[in-house]
Amino acid sequence: MRTYGSKLAALLLTLLFFAASAQAGKNCSARTMAPEAVRAAANAATRLSQVLDLALTKTPEQNVALVARIGQDFSDQGLLYSHVGVVFRQAQGWRVLHLLNECSSDRGGVFEEGLLNFFSDDLLTYQSKVLWLKPELAKHVQSALGSHSGKKVFQARYSVIAKVYSSKRQNSTAWVLELLAAASNPLPDSRMEAHTVLRSQGYQSDTIKIPYGKRVLGGLFSANADFAEHPLGDRLSGRYQVTTVKSIFRHARGQRWIASETLVEVPGAAVQLGD
Amino acid sequence: MLTLSTRRLLGTVLLFCLLANTSSAAPQSDISTVSALSEISVATGSAVVELVEAGAQLTILGVFFTGGVASVAVQAAAEGAKFSVAVPLELVDYLQENTGATVDALCDDAGTSLSIAGKEIAYVPNEALLQTNHRQAK
């Protein structure tokens, strides 16, 4: 028993070190999730897993999808989903690969997570949306992820408000968009090349409106929000060009990259439509 | 191939990480603290489900802290089994006041809810979720 306990202690400690929270723009405060949050995350993960399993059974060639969640209320910006990752099947189960901000710092990292962790992030609501990639693109995305986990289109400097086509900073949505661009064309081997592809495809970013007063009074001067890279005119007008989940979905549909879409609802909650 | 005990241990560790959600600055002294609690295993989804399905009567043994993380220890009276689940600090006073209270357990598709007189004190995700869950920097 003592041996088991010691091993358990060592494992716990080892994994607690790795469990340092890397979340989508959240602080890394030491806290245990409330039971209702764990239950909501577990139920959302179970439902998503069931939806993914069913789709894979019906169309095995569609095995890579985009999955979006609702972490923050951006309804005043006309946005529903705040974060997106790439979900794919491995022998051990479904995995989400996504870029996360490390503890509200100016650093980001690409993480592979199980579905339970994907929803264990203090979400606003637990509805999610799945966009299955067409097999041809899915194959290229898998290839890109398998060879270098999308690192060629990854930038470690993070800004939640990263300017569209920024070469110096990146956020979660920009990484996914650039990964798709790289997979959609055999040439891109860097972020700059992915940007060129996106421009040629006519990608349109969205405008996020943050008035100057709100930016100052709202305490939006933080390590993970760099407004300075945006043009002066945009900063003065409070209108920032950024890559949103909505713009990714719009572009993906326009490029005919999407085979099918599934809304994963929360039982008992009103369905929220749109992106 | 993982043995059952290894898989349970893995599930245990994953659950602990999920619920603990602590910062990376865990002090080295935690090793001895956790070892001292080795007779109380951290809850796994399957272990809790087995106890619930067996009709075990669960009671609160108490609350303890490990590296700043609060956990509630639960005992299955007849079976003699004990397990613990990490709980938010907001629940500590309530749980201490309710030491010895009966815990109701309710299983659903995703896991097991533990409650005292209708107040949910913990939720243990099922084994399938825990075993497919992980976080790895790429």
Helicity of chain A, as a percent range: 25-40%
Number of helices of chain A: 9
Q: Separation of termini of chain A? A: 52 Å
Q: What order do the SSEs of chain A take from the amino end to the carboxyl end, as H and E?
A: HHEEEEHEHHHEHHEHE
Q: Mean pLDDT across all residues of chain B, rounded?
A: 73
Determine the structural class of chain B based on helices, strands and strand pairing.
alpha+beta
Question: What is the H/E string of chain B?
Answer: HHEHEEEHEEEHE
How far apart the termini of chain B lie comes to: 24 Å
What radius of gyration of chain B results from the CA coordinates? 15 Å
- Unreliable runs of chain B: 1-38
Largest sheet of chain B: 7 strands, mixed
Number of strands of chain B: 8
The amount of beta strand of chain B, in percent, is 25-35%
Strand order of the largest sheet of chain A: 4-3-2-1-5-8
Largest contact between chains: A-B, 54 and 55 residues
Measured by DSSP, the beta-strand proportion of chain A falls in: 15-25%
Care to count the β-strands of chain A? 8
Q: What is the chains' assembly state?
A: heterodimer
Helix count of chain B?
A: 5
State Rg of chain A. Answer: 19 Å
* Low-confidence blocks of residues of chain A: 1-21
What would you note in describing this structure?
The complex is a heterodimer of chains A (275) and B (138). Chain A has helices at 2-18, 35-58, 115-119, 135-148, 172-184, 191-201, 212-217, 232-237, 245-254; strands at 64-70, 83-90, 93-101, 108-113, 125-133, 206-209, 239-242, 258-264. By secondary structure, chain A is an alpha+beta fold. A six-stranded antiparallel β-sheet of chain A has the order 4-3-2-1-5-8, sandwiched between helices. Chain A has a two-stranded antiparallel sheet with strand order 6-7. The radius of gyration of chain A is 19 Å and the shape is globular. The model of chain A is unreliable at 1-21 (pLDDT under 50). In chain B, a hairpin with a 2-residue loop joins β6 (111-116) and β7 (119-125). Chain B is 32% helix and 34% strand. A seven-stranded mixed β-sheet of chain B has the order 1-4-3-2-5-6-7. Residues 1-38 of chain B have low confidence and may be disordered. By secondary structure, chain B is of the alpha+beta class. Chain B contains five helices and eight strands, in the order ααβαβββαβββαβ. Chains A and B meet through α1, α2, β3, β4 and α3 of A and α1, α2, β1, β6 and β7 of B. β4 (108-113) of chain A pairs antiparallel with β8 (135-137) of chain B.
